[in-house]
Each structure stands twice: as structure tokens, then as C-alpha cells.
Design a protein that fits this description.
Order of helices and strands: HEHEHEHEHEEEEHHHHH
Mean pLDDT: 91
Number of strands: 8
Radius of gyration: 19 Å
CATH architecture of the largest domain: 3-Layer(aba) Sandwich
CATH topology of the largest domain: Rossmann fold
Largest sheet: 6 strands, parallel
């Protein structure tokens, strides 16, 4: 159906908010040990949100930095899932500590919980991924689950994280299967983007689809070598792909690059 002049005018006047990338990304070996000033720039009373397994690991690395900058920190576990029940408890923890910024650490659900709490409490957010399994540390999106782990809905956030710290030494401590999962998730972005938006003529959709293709090719070429050389140069490049570049695709393409089979199958399997 041809567009009327009124429809064309409406399209031309739409204002679209693009949340493409974190305000700052620090990446490298032992990046955490060099991030003190950047972290301290957000406030004096951070609350560190993560999972029961990843919190002790990250706090061990963070504690000297926090103490050096005299930051009064607290910690809170998100529980088993990023659920409404856990979010309520986390908001109470933020209020009790009088936190002025959030540090989120862990995998996808932990980071989703931390980002959503920061959004709801209007606080800055620092994300510290502990594996290469997802791009959650990058994106302006959080998924919410039931206490039993069933996907309920997602929340588009006002912005990407204020600071992302990708510490390769920290990522290297994660089981290799998590990076394998991240590789699969990142490769799937090409198939989702090409199916949902492959014929789009919009500039940003074209860019997102082509970026997904580039990421697919990088991972198909380098993943086997990376998995055989944990911590090596190729391994770091693959981690950059699963944690960072995969997030770029979602930032540029948005929901139009993920609303097809892969996400739908995952969400359905959680029920």
C-alpha cells in the first residue's frame, strides 16, 4: 500500500532514541586494577549486585580499589533469577545502604538485575561481566523472569551502562562452556538479524545486519583456536566479539534484530 503524505510526515517526524553503547569501556588484562578512578567518579557509596558465586570473586578483586578510594560499599545477591521478587529486595538494599551508584557483576541475569535496579533507582551503573556468555554488560535491556525461571518480559532501559569493565583475567576464570554458549548466542544474531531485517532499507538496520554477518564470520574463523588457547590473543578477540560486538548489534538494530526464532525458542523453553 503506498504511503500517504500524512503517513510520510508522521514517519519523518518520529524521534527514535538509540542506546548503542556504554559511555565508557575499559578492557584488558587486569582492567579492574586500573579502573579505580573511573569507578570512584560515580560516587562514594556503591552497592555491588551479583550472584552468590560471582560476588566473592569480583569483590576480592574490587576490594583494594574500593578501599584505596575510600568507597563505602555494600553487596547484595540477586538470588536465583532477575525476578520481581528479587528486584523488590534489591531496591530495599539500595535504599538501606543509601547507595549513589550500582556495580553489577556476573552473568546475564545478574547484570540484567543490576541494570534494571539502576534504571528504577535513577543511579549510574558500572557493569563487570564474569564470563563471555552474553552481551548483557553492554546493552540497554533487562529480561525479567518468574521466581521459577520462566521468562516474563523485557524492559528497554534509558541508556546503556555508564561504564563497562571487561577484565580478561576475570573472564578467564569462568568455565569454558560459558564462552561456548556466548559464541552460539552471538552467531545466532546473524540468523535473527538477517531474517527479521535483512531486506530493510533503513541505514541502521543495514548496519546491524552487516555487523552481525561480520561477527558471525569472526567467530566461525576464530572460535576453535580461541577455545584451545584460553587467555591467548585469539581468545581475547572472541571474548570481545561475544561481550562487546554482539552488544553493538543490539544497540544499532534494537528489537528488530532479535524478535525472531532464537529468542522466542529460548523464552518458550523457560516455561
Amino acid at each position: 500500500m503506498p504511503q500517504t503524505s500524512s503517513t510520510q510526515n508522521l514517519i519523518s517526524t518520529l524521534v527514535v532514541s538509540l542506546n548503542i553503547a556504554p559511555a565508557q569501556v575499559l578492557r584488558g588484562n587486569n582492567a579492574l586494577t586500573q579502573a579505580g578512578e573511573a569507578i570512584a567518579g560515580f560516587g562514594q557509596r556503591p552497592i555491588i549486585i551479583g550472584g552468590d558465586r560471582t560476588l566473592p570473586l569480583t569483590i576480592q578483586a574490587l576490594q583494594p580499589i574500593l578501599e584505596c578510594h575510600q568507597l563505602q560499599y555494600s553487596q547484595a545477591s540477586y538470588g536465583a533469577d532477575c525476578s520481581e521478587t528479587s528486584l523488590t529486595a534489591l531496591r530495599q538494599a539500595v535504599s538501606s545502604h543509601n547507595a549513589d551508584f550500582i556495580i553489577g557483576t556476573g552473568g546475564g541475569k545478574a547484570l540484567d538485575a543490576a541494570k534494571l535496579i539502576a534504571y528504577q533507582c535513577h543511579l549510574p551503573i558500572v557493569t563487570i561481566p564474569t564470563s563471555g556468555a552474553t552481551c548483557a554488560a553492554w546493552t540497554a535491556l533487562s529480561n525479567v523472569y518468574s521466581p521459577e525461571g520462566a521468562f516474563l518480559y523485557d524492559v528497554s532501559l534509558a541508556r546503556c551502562p555508564d561504564l563497562l569493565i571487561l577484565d580478561y583475567n576475570l573472564i578467564q576464570t569462568a568455565p569454558q562452556r560459558l564462552l561456548v554458549a556466548g559464541i552460539g548466542d552471538a552467531i545466532a544474531k546473524w540468523y535473527e538479524a538477517s531474517v527479521s531485517s535483512g531486506h530493510s532499507e533503513q541505514t541502521f538496520m543495514i548496519a546491524a545486519v552487516q555487523q552481525a554477518r561480520v561477527l558471525r564470520d569472526i567467530l566461525l574463523q576464530k572460535s576453535l583456536t580461541a577455545l584451545q588457547d584460553n587467555g591467548g590473543e585469539t581468545w581475547r578477540e572472541v571474548v570481545d566479539g561475544t561481550v562487546l560486538l554482539a552488544g553493538v548489534i543490539g544497540g544499532i538494530g534494537g528489537a528488530q534484530c532479535r524478535t525472531v526464532a532464537a529468542h522466542a525458542v529460548h523464552n518458550g523453553l523457560t516455561h
